[in-house]
Amino acid sequence: MNKPMKAKDKIVFALDVNTIDEVKILVKELKDYVGTFKIGLQLVTSVGPDAIKVIQDEGGKIFFDGKFHDIPNTVAKASSNLVKHGVTFFNVHLQGGSKMIASAVKEARDVARKNELEKPVILGTSLLSSFGQRTLTEELCVSKNIDEYTTKLIELAKFSGLDGIVSPANDTPKIKKMCGEDFIVMCPAIRPTWSVVNDQIRVVTPTDAVKAGVDYMVIGRPISMAKDRVSAAKLILDEIEEAMENASELMI
Ligand code: C5P
Asked: Which atom of ligand 1 is nearest to the CA of 199?
């Protein structure tokens, strides 16, 4: 079961840095308060896969946010390499289509089984938040409106064998309705009321994310830019814990 049971496990901290020294400091400091560390193109293009080792040595889980989008064979091989590195979560672009997604899923699961490694959690990335209706219609010639288009991508995620989706928090109830409660939803743009919004557009508090049914929350700058990172992480943890308790009381 891949569902996070504790508040700590719900937090995916975005390691948006450039050096291995910064990775070491942040992972050591935050490993008791966040369950997973997200690494992406910024870090991997500067330090390579060494970042993975640093996180693993401290006992942290890894989400590789590489948003794969290429021909099926290339994506399958890259997925297999990630699994061999011991990455727990990774994602592929839903716009890569069902053949690409299915080959990534098959290859990643086969490699995990053959090497007796933990089964990877493979997520589909929905339409990027940097896309608006104009880009979709005028640049990609998609005549559907954004809502219909993302609904189609959610359907694709469901039928391509993925474990879940990376999506804005507001779409969580729709995703759970369409794909079932066990389908994982991971959301960025999470902002506690006390933090700065930065460049995110539609932000959601940790409390509202829990209420919406979000499983994992990607959180970066509210922690990394705080004067005291550990206190910021603890505040978020407490907020999630309280929201989870309230949500479970409502279900009784
Ligand atoms: O919390 P903060 O805004 O700093 O974290 C943003 C992280 O979430 C970044 O690593 C960014 O790449 C990722 N992300 C996002 N919006 C998306 C998908 C991922 O901000 N739609």
From this structure: 3
Query: How far apart are alpha carbons 216 and 166 in whole angstroms?
Result: 9
Query: Ligand 1 atom closest to Cα of 168?
Result: 21
How many other CB atoms are there within 10 angstroms of residue 251's CB atom? Answer: 5
Fill in the amino acid letter for 103: S
Residue 62 has pLDDT above 60, yes or no: yes
Does the beta carbon of 42 sit less than 6 angstroms from any atom of ligand 1? no
Any ligand 1 atom below 6 A from CB of 198: yes
| 3-state secondary structure at position 103 | helix
Mutate to test the pocket of ligand 1, among 38, 186, 218, 236 (most ligand atoms within 8 A of CB): 218
Q: What is the pTM of this model?
A: 0.95
Mean pLDDT of 4-30: 96
Mean pLDDT, to the nearest integer, of 235-251?
90
Domain layout of the chain by residue ranges = 7-251
The fold of the 7-251 domain, in CATH, is TIM Barrel (3.20.20)
Contact 190, 14 (CB under 8 A): no
